[in-house]
Amino acid sequence: MPGPANRLGAAARKLEAVPDSPHDRHPAARRLRQSGLAPRVAAAGLGLSVLVLAGCGQMGAALSQQAAVVTFKANTTVATVLRVRQACSHVPNVMAAPIKRTETALDVIDALRYNTTNASDANLAELQQCLQKYPSVQGIDFSDVSDDS
């Protein structure tokens, strides 16, 4: 009956028969493993992967912006648009987009934008009810938008 030493010897011989991995044959891989840099290179690769995935998440967040674009009837004054903007700015989770100093009066009248990314359906309904009180409002378009600036 063979003893434990004989069984170990047979197992060791079987392991010797297993061919080397293709990675073991490549001289650069062998040097990397022997130098002790392999764990550092793996950690750097993992760190880079995390950064890439985080960037994709931010890009996805930027692409999933929600907005309400309010259009006004012809001959609406800038003062009227600003009154409507102020009157409906109380709706929770809805923020009027800032008016840039470079925008002309026609740009302001053309379309008033609200950021509705975090707004619930109830918030959107409240915004719509507020805007519909003003006869100068022609329409409201709720949509997904990207950063147009």
Decide which structural class fits the backbone. Answer: alpha+beta
Query: Could you give the count of β-strands?
Result: 4
CATH superfamily of the largest domain: Lrp/AsnC effector binding domain/regulation of amino acid metabolism (RAM) domain
What is the level-2 CATH architecture name of the largest domain?
2-Layer Sandwich
Show unreliable segments. Answer: none
Strand percent estimate: 15-25%
The radius of gyration computed from the alpha-carbon positions, rounded to a whole number of angstroms, is 32 Å
The percentage helix is 40-55%
Number of helices: 7
Largest sheet: 4 strands, antiparallel
Distance from N terminus to C terminus (CA atoms, Å) equals 83 Å
Order of helices and strands: HHHHEHEHEHE
CATH topology of the largest domain: Alpha-Beta Plaits
Shape type? elongated
Strand order of the largest sheet: 2-3-1-4
Query: How many domain regions?
Result: 2
Overall CATH class of the largest domain: Alpha Beta
Q: What's the pLDDT, averaged over the residues?
A: 75
Write up what this structure looks like.
By secondary structure, this protein is α+β, with helices and mostly antiparallel strands. The protein folds into two domains: 21-63; 65-145, 2-Layer Sandwich (Alpha-Beta Plaits). It has helices spanning 4-17, 22-25, 27-35, 38-63, 78-87, 105-110, 121-132, and strands at 65-72, 95-96, 112-115, 137-145. A four-stranded antiparallel β-sheet has the order 2-3-1-4.
